[in-house]
Amino acid sequence: MRHDHLISAKQLSRADIDTVLDRAADIARSPPDVNQYADTILGLLFFEPSTRTKMSFDSAMKRLGGTTVDMGTVESSSVKKGESLADTVRVIEGYADALVLRHPSEGAAKMASEFVDVPIINAGDGAGQHPTQTLLDLYTIRENVGFDDLSIGIMGDLKYGRTVHSLSHALTNVDARQHFISPESLRLPRSVRYDLHEIGANVREHTGLDDVLSTLDVLYVTRIQRERFPDENEYRQVAGQYRITAELLADANDDLIVMHPLPRVDEIAPEVDETEHAQYFQQAHNGIPVRMALLDLMLGGETQ
Amino acid sequence: MRHDHLISAKQLSRADIDTVLDRAADIARSPPDVNQYADTILGLLFFEPSTRTKMSFDSAMKRLGGTTVDMGTVESSSVKKGESLADTVRVIEGYADALVLRHPSEGAAKMASEFVDVPIINAGDGAGQHPTQTLLDLYTIRENVGFDDLSIGIMGDLKYGRTVHSLSHALTNVDARQHFISPESLRLPRSVRYDLHEIGANVREHTGLDDVLSTLDVLYVTRIQRERFPDENEYRQVAGQYRITAELLADANDDLIVMHPLPRVDEIAPEVDETEHAQYFQQAHNGIPVRMALLDLMLGGETQ
Amino acid sequence: MRHDHLISAKQLSRADIDTVLDRAADIARSPPDVNQYADTILGLLFFEPSTRTKMSFDSAMKRLGGTTVDMGTVESSSVKKGESLADTVRVIEGYADALVLRHPSEGAAKMASEFVDVPIINAGDGAGQHPTQTLLDLYTIRENVGFDDLSIGIMGDLKYGRTVHSLSHALTNVDARQHFISPESLRLPRSVRYDLHEIGANVREHTGLDDVLSTLDVLYVTRIQRERFPDENEYRQVAGQYRITAELLADANDDLIVMHPLPRVDEIAPEVDETEHAQYFQQAHNGIPVRMALLDLMLGGETQ
């Protein structure tokens, strides 16, 4: 792997993905020597609220023996004074050895990367990309069921979820069969479908789980956001239909894993947490070895 | 001491208290070897504003050579997206080796501890417990006047102050004579009085300091909150009566120490800061060795 | 250099300035041994929003091998409960080995320094001082053009900018010729002019750049704040006149450096970023070696 910045999951080849995931698996087995990063500072620039992504990068850098500096919230920063993103990142690159950036505007990370010399990792840019989420999703799939002959169902809000679009693109790289399950109003956008078609993705769309559940190795559930619906009734109806329960999972493959990028609201019933299917908390925890691996490859780079 | 979590001061036996306070005294004398904790990350989850408790844990972990990751404010986190506390702690336990939790709901820390495998320390749960405050209070008392034949006055808002309820419970463990001094409207709640009676506490109640001041080793003052009173006049009258001044302390024992959990507003006149009685800033500083001791016992556990 | 606190640039003698700048230059060339500060904790107390100053101190302490504890925003702290600044700093000094303080009230740092035993560094007190900004400005000037026979233009809002007042005072120490360029309504305040006159500063005032641009070694631009103007029209007119463009710089000395304390809004056109004149991002980055030097001198103090 040799990238100066990680902006989009689309820039990752199959070889890149294997390199990061192999390194993550090594790290999960035996934590690396931390002295290498004793002098390394990672800058955290989150222009939108975040708990898990920010804490996960923070923890990953510290698990590597390095440290972080945090811009804090937009409200507590001089961004309020009207500074451009280009200026902000050009200043802050002087305080850190690499930057993690989340920003509400699509394309923000790409733009920022054109102004700075230190590596930039995109931690979400609006409706755009969130490549480290994709990498930890792939890691969770590979560690549990492998990539061979993989059948995955991706369910819920497929229209707005950036997680889904990135993941689907990457899954094409590992030749997965992808089933998209959503209400008509939350179907994958035409542009994404076209994009997947162009790269030869193996994709089918469904409006319910019944036809496909028993054939799946992975069921990836996403949050259906109340604010996407014009009225409460329609929301309730849709949300009720796309809720995973223990009863529903009785029809599934024993080895099926259920994933979710979290936070969840009602999409997965709490009783599912107790089943062997539930991998969503472990999935979140996998952010640590995956982000450690990524930082190690981008900053230390012994395994390029 | 062997506890997986520290949820309530009530779970601490006299032996537990001595173990923590002895270790804290050791640490205050000679800081421990910090290499043991070079790989340790403490997660800070504060769902309510806090300065001193959060900074104190942050500093204590770092004084031990470890580091921290901070969830930030609720406004900057995905808690806003409707995630349950149980889900939040199950995710964040993957980023840290132990969690410190403050939450506005009584029982939150207990509940959280049932969902995670890492140790949880309760840093305040609404009107409930705040056990590390109790430990640093006990440490301050023991270091200054000892527990033998101890007479303590606890004054101010005894109705709402969680600090007071925890402390009073623990003081019973060290056989202290406890004098509660408050206006009628801010008396210790009946449930707490009953609880103290059940465990054989040595307790008397007063509406003024005059009868008891000269008999005290410790005067523990708490903040009287304006928002507890229906009208400003009543507040002023009460607050004025329960204000400690240098003049008032002229009648006290020379060795009397004045304590306060801070922040104070007007309960202690600034001139008292200059007297030998004032121990409230030192009391706050004692949070460092006490929390270092606690983390050391819970995480390293060489002295169990 | 031997100061317990750094409150004002005015307390720095020429020898002090040289000591800090020499140490910063050493650090920029070869980072110091970081083991000396492995046990050092710097407390960050920012009562006002800040990005660059706070992150810069945070990074500088960590580049020295130490760590920091952060009070967080005022909204997330117990300052909201009505605690006085004197009480807050007396508590927090127990959690750290030195404190960096930014506060909206002029004189806050001075006042705070009278209550604590640990060193305090003023990181801005309202319209008052911001001495580490002055030091990094001086460092940037010295590294680029030196102090010998220095001619500097200071332009923009000279009335409200605390940066300017501190810098101007310090520049008198190095015998610079200072040209102040501003609209009539944003002239240097009479009190500052008087103060500069008293210490023998070499100062001239202008309402435009034309007369002086070609004679300058340094052009220091400051932000003209919209909110200072009664109406939008007047703001636009003034802001337009005091905007630096590549075209305008065609008349300047080849070696002229353009500085700005940042954030900028429209005072410097983006095309200037690409010229050799632009030093404002490097100026911000210079905050790291300068603050490392200062912390090293105040905390370690091997080079006094």
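Chain C has eleven helices and nine strands.
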